[in-house]
Amino acid sequence: MFSPEGPTLRELAVQAMSSVERGYDLLAPKFDRTPYRTPDRVLDAVASALEPLGPFGTGLDLCCGTGAGTDVLARVCRGRVTGVDFSEGMLTVARERARPAGAAPAWVRADARALPFAPAFDLVVSFGAFGHFLPRELPGLFAQVHSVLRPGGLFAFPVAAPPPPGSRPYWALLGFDAAMRARNAVWRPPFVMYYRTFRLGQVGRELARAGFRTALHPLAEFGRRPDGSPRARLVTARRAPAPAGAATGAAVRAGS
Fold first, then answer.
1. Helices (H), strands (E): how many in the chain?
2. Could you give all domains of the chain from N- to C-terminal order, each with its CATH number?
3. Residue of 115, 159, 208, 254 with fewest CB within 10 Å of its CB?
4. pTM for the whole structure
């Protein structure tokens, strides 16, 4: 599961008994050599799905970690790319690994639930971070994303289909979430990381309440399940365009 250069079992145990922020600070130097880093296959599929929806201007990688998602933004955005995360350790690694073809990304330390930006972005992406937010936090999180997008801007993120009940992945995820809930019941500070709380139906409802118009795009690279449904989708949520005749500044229309 982990490469020889990845974290040891002891290091993972220390991380798991820390807060989310402290845990990722500790994990950061070896994060890219763990399964937690979004695979290049997913990043490439998302970039390919976004390209026909552009071009985009400025981009924000929400909960950017070590910056893998900013590579996607660099492919589809013409303007400045920014990564935001609350772990200074992850941002330090992101700064070190960044090899931009154009302008260097901006790296900002901040909580996704209180973003320090004006409506300055045409595209916001996020990869693999939503398990760190409890379901009750989604309305506030999506409201924050809405607030930093220009009119007509797009919020996009991939989601995998849930594993079939009774399958090995199903029991693995169920067991992980159960272990995490037990840990948080007896240990402080809590470490919020649940794989089964980010449900597509609820997510769609909360995005709509936040003012987004949502769509689902199958990621064909991952094929389909036996019932014909996609194994992975890209969720796109668009902030409403400015009213006809209103000033839109430097907003870039990202297509429909």
1. 8, 7
2. 39-239 (3.40.50.150)
3. 208
4. 0.87
